[in-house]
């Protein structure tokens, strides 16, 4: 699995590429950015919470999507990849919800100053999905005007859009709601079904379960056509596309695969290497 997206081996490299001096949290809250103002909406920070400065490192690199794994412990939503990583001080509120609310307030209604796009907060449920989602829903309700909301058949866009991934049991209570502040992360099995984009706005799947090509040599024509077909089908229904388990070690193979994803108009590129994807997207002049 050396090629796939795991970030522990990249933490030091990513910090070095990003520079050794991090912005103070107060500057990030105020919306200050080290780079140009244009966010990279296609950039997805996989396992974002494992970076030295969760959320803020991704925002400093202008990412349009961040991912947080949650565990329900009592009535708390703790952040971590594995149960042994959990720390009572590292909650969804402390690492993501409170900082995002403060930043949006400082930026007069947006995550990125003078940019009205919605930051995707992909929340990956690691404990039983139904009970965890119901508790998560109560947490999200405390942040008025922060989240994109579905209400009685209409979607009202907010500065942050929560998308629920992970344990599939979350789907049942979500589908039953007439008002919710989160949306469902679909799989290939949801592509072309009756599930609307107002419920499943994102189709995500494991790259290696759908394609054999990992960036070395030519992309097989049949696989390229399959990729383009997936994107066309999703976009025709107003859905976006993301793949995880793509190569994430810097080099020609990763660049080749990222290039094919851009050419196919895939909406999110998945990485643990924030600086690497930022540089790639800037070089290709794409958001």
Automatic annotation (TrEMBL):
Q: Where are the transmembrane segments?
A: none
A Pfam family annotated for this chain is GDPD_2
Give the signal peptide range.
Answer: 1-27
- In which domain of life is the source organism classified? Bacteria
UniProt keywords, alphabetically: Signal
Q: What is this protein called?
A: Altered inheritance of mitochondria protein 6
**Originating organism:** Streptomyces lanatus
